[in-house]
Design goal:
529 residues; mainly alpha; Growth Hormone, Chain: A; globular; MFS_sugar_transport-like
Amino acid sequence: MANQLGVLNALDAAKTQWYHFTAIVIAGMGFFTDAYDLFSISLITKLLGRIYYFDALSEKPGTLPLRIAAAVNGVAFCGTLAGQLFFGWLGDKLGRKRVYGLTLMLMVICSIASGLSFGKSPDGVMATLCFFRFWLGFGIGGDYPLSATIMSEYANKKTRGAFIAAVFAMQGFGILTGGIIALIVSAAFDHAYKALPYNVDREHSTAPQADYIWRIILMFGAIPALLTYYWRMKMPETARYTALVARNAKQAAADMSKVLQVELNAEQEKVDKIGREQFGLFSKEFAKRHGLNLLGTTSTWFLLDIAFYSSNLFQKDIFSAIGWLPKAETMSATKEVYQIAKAQTLIALCGTVPGYWFTVAFIEHLGRFAIQLMGFFFMSVFMFALAIPYPYWKTHNTGFLIMYSLTFFFANFGPNATTFIVPAEIFPARLRSTCHGISAAAGKAGAIVGSLGFLYAAQSTNHDKVDKGYHTGIGVKNALIVLGAVNCLGMLFTLLVPETMGRSLEDITGENEEDNGYEQRFSVEKVPV
């Protein structure tokens, strides 16, 4: 296009080369750490209950009291939500690169600090853990808008979706690694410090050394983040931010000349002509041009995360309910960690990880809209297929596991990936990080609803089978029906999300246009699919 800056044209037309893969690894390792840190908590909550809330008179091992379980599971999401809004806004104000290293260091420090949680009482230890996990979540939150925006602004237009999806796909490896680390640590401790099952010897079913297990698992999350810190600091600011937001054409051309290894002209005159009309996030103009799109990205991410996080965080409860995990009282504390980790690793290997990479492979062929709609549809189908004949699955564990894995497969080969990709493409450069942060924060609000709601809802309808300290719930069967209905709503709101495949970012948002042509171009090209 005539008005397209040469430096942005060069990025859009660039062949896939080494710097693309470097950017994927640098941004992706942040997401690896994000997923490891957020989901590793589900591996250790039952262990925390055994260690800190042991009751020698109880026939069942200790469990976290309801308010503590809710805090431990949900506090990182609260931090993540706050971090997405704050760092998303900061990424547009100060630049993507300047904020990028800060989020990573916050994650490293708080991962280590989580494992060093201390206190004079059990509640004191949990309070310290929750404090550090809130700030860990705050750092993780910043990684969402910044990683997505950086990758979308670096990528070429033909493979942009696949590159952003590849960054997000590192989440799958983070979840898988969490399970593997828990397997290794629990097996090592089980071998070194033998303990009898709870129903044989209540007092000694939890070895004193088991307190190190959860600390090691949490602290390991700092290692991959620390390894990529140097490379994050070496990345230049994205050309789209430098040219379209900072309005420094010379710097943008100089930075991308080094990255692409070609000579690029500055074209400051073009920068001065493009997008002089600056409307804010809360303006009528933004609402008219981007309001429906923002509603589409926030609502679909909110609905997706209700189903995705409730299923992911409470796998262990679902496995116990169908009898795939042995009863807690028949295992020692270390053996229980091992069994939970084994189950979650299997699910990650069979459903979670492949789903992410199917998205990477097919997103530039099927498009974002089709993959998101298809993903929500099949998640609904499999949730209902698990829920309606629920008593049947109690005696057919393998079938249940296959169906359950397929819900994760279609979450990741579906809306879990596309809700992350699309907000990084459809908003103007000066609001891109902010709008992605708002969309992601809506998702985390869904995760909080899902994780806390499922904690209460999935409790048995039979009072005798309810976990200590909990009230009766609607049961796993009805909870799965509710999640299926939530996915149906996700299909409906997907209709508000536009297709962006194969188009340049400036073409999608209308930023190429001088002000008098902007309105007409945007209204024509914003129609979905």
